[in-house]
Amino acid sequence: MPKPDLLLLGPIPVAARALEAHFELHRLWEAADRQGFIAERKDRIRAIATSGSLRTDAALIDQLPKLEIIGNFGVGYDTVDAPYAAKRGIVVTNTPDVLTEEVADTALGLILMTVRELGAAERFVREGRWLTGGFPYSHATLRGKTVGIVGYGRIGKAIAARLKGFGVGLAYHNRRPVADADIAYVDTLIGLAGLVDILVSVLPGGDATYHAINAEVFEALGPEGIFINIGRGSAVDEAALVAALQAGKLQSAGLDVYAVEPCRPAELAAFERVVLLPHVGSASQHTRAAMGQLMVDNLVNWFDKGAPLTPVPETPWPR
Ligand code: 8YV
User: Fold this and answer.
1) Among the atoms of ligand 1, which is closest to the Cα of residue 73?
2) What is the pLDDT of residues 104-154, one digit of tens each?
3) Which of 12, 172, 189, 214 has the least CB density, counted as fewest CB within 10 Å?
């Protein structure tokens, strides 16, 4: 049996060997003329694998009449037009669960780094400044504080479970209350921001959340407030975040994700207290390997057994 043809939009090193074993790979990012590359192969490509670095939009989907499945490396699939794929009968899969605990761990690291200014403290030792004086006390603490989580899905719950051990108050906001939640629900994002000291966003990307975290939210969080983002950068109005920090209307922020990635966010880096991570939420070798395996398993299962393992909610399944 010939291997099915798969268009790989960008490099996914942890999955490369497994993909090669099962598919005829077409590496789009290596092509000088992308349109020509796709046009030459359009009647053969039956699968796409993507890490979200390039968009799988309606235009790309329409160029591939034999496309059956899009495998996304990552739980967030905002760069894939899943509703359009569903209309065309194309399955979309993502990699949930296998990264939940890793991302929650990173969120806790980011919260602690930001609240206790540990990034600046680490630089202080590294740069030899400790030799001439002590590091200033951190302005903030977790003691007696309340943390709000916006986007209370699997990862939000795993963050809350960890924070329970820290003795902080907890509340969350989602479009709808979550049935098995055991922390307080606040029915508006502004209400949540006004209630808490630290706001953690686990919001996914896409039109529904675009700039949901805006000037009004920062205003409600207040001058002692701290904002943490482990979800998607597009959910935050970054200009409003910079403006709030510059005006002293927000104390600090800890970010793992940005509006545009990769980036060198100079305006944010100007604040010593602000903590900036390079989208490493799930990025351990262990978890990235598990994500790669699940993406490949979805694709292989589709061609071997006609069923995806973890289709996204927009994909009507079972049909
Ligand atoms: C991904 C992520 O690994 O899973 C997600 O949604 O944000 C990351 O952990 C990344 O998007 C892959 O490029």
Assistant:
1) 12
2) 999 999 999 999 999 999 999 999 999 999 999 999 999 999 999 999 999
3) 214
Radius of gyration of the chain (CA): 21
* Catalytic residue status for 261: yes
Chain segment 150-167, per-residue pLDDT in tens: 999 999 999 999 999 999
CATH of domain 5-98+286-305: 3.40.50.720
Q: Is 174 in the pocket of ligand 1 (CB under 6 A)?
A: no
Specify the pTM.
0.97
Alpha-carbon span 319 to 316, nearest angstrom: 6
Q: Which CATH number fits domain 100-276: 3.40.50.720, 3.40.50.2300, 3.40.50.620, 3.40.50.1240?
A: 3.40.50.720
Cβ(12) – ligand 1 distance below 6 Å: no
Q: Is 214 in the pocket of ligand 1 (CB under 6 A)?
A: no
Instruction: Give me the amino acid identity at 170.
Output: L
